[in-house]
Write a structure and sequence with these properties.
Layout lengths: L13 E3 L5 E2 L12 H10 L10 E6 L3 E6 L4 H18 L7 E4 L16 H6 L4 H18 L4 E5 L8 H12 L7 E8 L7 H9 L4 E5 L15 H10 L3 E3 L2 H5 L4 H14 L2
Helix pairs in contact: 2-4, 4-5
Length: about 270
């Protein structure tokens, strides 16, 4: 299955003082290694790449599945993602409703920015190193920030090879980059109220001086995904961490699930941030 798309999300399914955002999503993955040549070429045709076979990698991912993805750390991939950023900015950069550009990374599960289910040995054999990943993600984030010079940028972060130092270095370096005017913050599209998943990264984010943007890990009726089965713990955790914006699932607004709690979070965000 080929999945390569750019999604512009104008949903109002958000809380916090950034009411509208566009989510830039580039996802490329396939279900078998046999699809490597044709699928990879088709995926990168959308990014104006002519010869891409050396810029993708097949990763064994969870129970024998194989995903073929672009190598985020490949120089050609970085160049083409910059072209994508410039093309998107030409179309949407002056839109006053655009408040936030979300920049994830292409990984084995799609675009969530983690390699859960892929062994460290497989990643290293594919050419992955911590330095390559840090430099690639920073370069792409800078390119999007320069393409959208007056917009906030949210960079997805996850532990890599069980190391929270990698994402922490990325967001810290970007926040301290004087050329970016502290517009590039961290994105955690997995906030749940729990502290058992990526606890060291949660600690690093809590101490992070920059902006943090989040998405609820699931719908409120998926109670097992939240601490003690309580959806409100996610909102409490967000405030404790200093999150300024949370993207919620449409389910919450269709069903008017937690209006008082959402109003409370909005009041906190409006009082805390400009």
């Amino acid at each position: 299955m080929l999945a390569c798309q750019v999604t512009i999300n104008r949903s109002c399914a958000a809380t916090g003082n950034a009411a509208l955002s566009f989510n830039v999503v580039v996802a490329c993955q396939w279900h078998s290694a046999q699809q490597f040549n044709s699928a990879c070429a088709k995926a990168f045709a959308a990014l104006l790449v002519v010869d891409v076979l050396d810029h993708c990698v097949a990763l064994h991912y969870q129970e024998g599945n194989v995903k073929v993805i672009p190598k985020m750390w490949d120089n050609q991939v970085i160049v083409k993602l910059n072209q994508l950023a410039l093309a998107l900015a030409a179309k949407y950069g002056n839109d006053e409703d655009l408040g936030l550009v979300y920049v994830p990374q292409m990984t084995a599960n799609g675009i969530e920015g983690h390699f859960n289910g892929v062994s460290e040995t497989v990643l290293i054999n594919a050419g992955f190193t911590a330095d390559k990943w840090v430099n690639a993600v920073k370069s792409t984030a800078v390119n999007f920030a320069m393409a959208f010079p007056d917009k906030a940028i949210a960079v997805e972060v996850h532990d890599l090879i069980n190391d929270s130092a990698i994402p922490n270095q990325i967001i810290t370096d970007l926040w301290n980059d004087s050329s970016l005017n502290q517009r590039v913050g961290a994105a955690i599209w997995w906030i749940s109220g729990k502290t058992t998943y990526q606890p060291n990264l949660l600690d690093a984010l809590t101490a992070f001086p920059g902006d943090i943007y989040a998405q609820a890990i699931g719908r409120s009726d998926q109670r097992e995904r939240f601490k003690d089965g309580d959806y409100s713990t996610m909102l409490a955790q967000a405030k404790a961490m200093g999150v300024r914006y949370i993207e919620l699932w449409e389910y919450e607004f269709v069903n008017n699930t937690f209006p008082n709690e959402f109003s409370d979070f909005n009041a906190y965000a409006n009082a805390t941030y400009d």
